[in-house]
Specification:
By secondary structure, the chain is an alpha+beta fold. Among the domains are: 68-187, 2-Layer Sandwich (Beta-Lactamase); 198-306, Beta-Lactamase, CATH 3.30.450; 446-612, Histidine kinase-like ATPase, C-terminal domain (Heat Shock Protein 90, 2-Layer Sandwich). 50% of the residues lie in helices and 22% in strands. It has helices spanning 2-73, 82-99, 138-142, 147-152, 193-200, 236-241, 248-258, 304-341, 345-406, 411-438, 450-462, 486-504, 523-532, 579-590; strands spanning 106-111, 116-123, 128-132, 162-164, 167-177, 183-192, 210-215, 221-223, 262-270, 279-291, 294-303, 446-449, 469-475, 481-484, 512-520, 541-549, 593-599, 603-612. The chain has a 6-stranded antiparallel beta sheet with strand order 3-2-1-6-5-4. Strand 17 (593-599) and strand 18 (603-612) form a beta hairpin. One of its GO terms (molecular function) is ATP binding.
Length: 616
Amino acid sequence: MKRTNRIVNIMISAMIVFIVVSVFFAIRGFSVIRKTTTESGQDFLLQSTEYVGKVIQLSMKNRHQALNYLAIDGNLKNSDDPATYLQNSRSSLNTFFDSLNNEANVLFYMEADGTPLYAFHWDTEKKQVDIADIETIRPFIRHDLSLKQLLDKPTAQNGDSYFINKKAYVNFYQEIKTTTGQIDGYLILPLNLEAFYKNFLQDFELDYKGYPMIKDRSMTVVMHPVAQQVGLDIINGREKLYPDFDYSDLKRLEKYQLNHSSGKLTYKSYWWDEDTPTEVLKISAFEWIDVGLAHWVVAINADYNERNDDIINFVIVLSFLLVLLLLLIIICSLFIHNFRRKETIEAENRKLIEKQKQQKMQHQLELELYQRNKMETVGLLTTSIVHDMNNFLTPIIGNTQLLLEEHQDDPILEADLEEILHSAQKGKQLSSNVLRFSKPQKSVQEWIDISAAIGVATHLIGEIIPKNVRLSLSIQENLGTTKLEETDLQNLIYNLITNAYQATKENSEKAQKIAINVSPASEELTKTLKKDNHRTNHIDQFVTLEISDNGPGIPADLKEKIFEPFFTTKSADEGTGLGLFAVTSIVAKYEWHLSLVSERGEGTHFFITIPVRSCK
């Protein structure tokens, strides 16, 4: 009895130590996970910052290009008569201003010595250009401190940013030359950066609270979702509006940004887009960019706690459950100890044996539960990563398509953009396939005519097969109905036909052929299926879907591997290794039968046998 009690006490002590260690590692794991999550968020923000920076640079370049086209196509003459220029160029001017989407409403011509000659004003309501008073454009000249640099050395597309009445502008320059090549003057376009921000960055979306902002080299806000923040130094200017706020971390941020070309960090600040800004811990990433003579820092920040709330709650709940389990174990151990003292040696031995059996069973269940939770965690992590990947693949695909439309006259750039678009689409296709098998979906199954469903699916998928591939169909009608999701059947047929088409591409000396045959299953196969699966032993009818090709066949050593996820013999541009894995997953879902016949040089035959009920 003493030995038995000693063993029980040792086991209970070991479990207590295990729980205590688990609580310790849970707390430690929380710190590691939070750090990892923060770094992951910062990396995403840094990628987003680089994307925003490129958008700004490309958009600014497009505006200067538009100004250049205006100078070329606008019948501009070396004349000081604005009415003549307006008469010759009204259509070009109207088109030019309208394309800017309210980002500019003034354009003026300045002589080579810096004297403004005439100006034009764009009426946004009437959608027309009129001659403007020269005095109305003098603030755009007086506040642009980089104008002198232009006159001394006219090389930049635009000057540095400047402010007029708390609004940020940047001047675009386009030199006008005489027939002898001498600079006659400049077309100057003041661009309203607040309107530019609304057009390109206002709707920039994150999965959590945050926004992009742009500052100049003096740490003055140039573009911000809150108009009140524009023109403010991020510390001195804000201190005047909110003197009681803590700016120590903002000073650290300012110093870090001024001494690094790009980076990421965590700091305390406030949400300036709120009526009463509240203090918050932010994660941030930034990058310095050059736009003409302007040197700006593009920064994107996000709410630190919003990204980590789920992790904090999970660890708190986990720690509470572990502590509760520890208390329960202690209480149970005391009860067992007192109970054991009143039992006889024989009864104690019997119960000890029984208890050990129960503990073993409980331990086995705990191991199974642990493994299941671990796999669920892996699935959740996979889904989260793929979801984030989709978030930044979507703007890449969209903007690449826009760039393809804008640069159709540049075949070299168009080829590069098509390669980028193709790679992004392949990444999105891979993420969609991963999400399909890592994220539970609601199943809606209906009884459908198997012959008609296969016919429709084959017709839809056959449209995407190249014309040089011979696709033959042999589908018997009225074979019966079966209960399934039609999208699953379409997905199965799509993957098998795609696999067959890719196999026949290796045919160099014979035509590419794919055959689809739907017929009742043989009596021998029907008996085998009814015998091997008790769920189908009451079913008398089966239909076999055969998809075959005349490709090179599958080597014997690869027949077992081809159904594994992500296994593929194709290049990265042709396959992801998820097609046949999707087929086996659908077959397993409905408990169908899948078989494969393939010989080297004789092609490949896939057989899917489906139980049906009579249409009669």
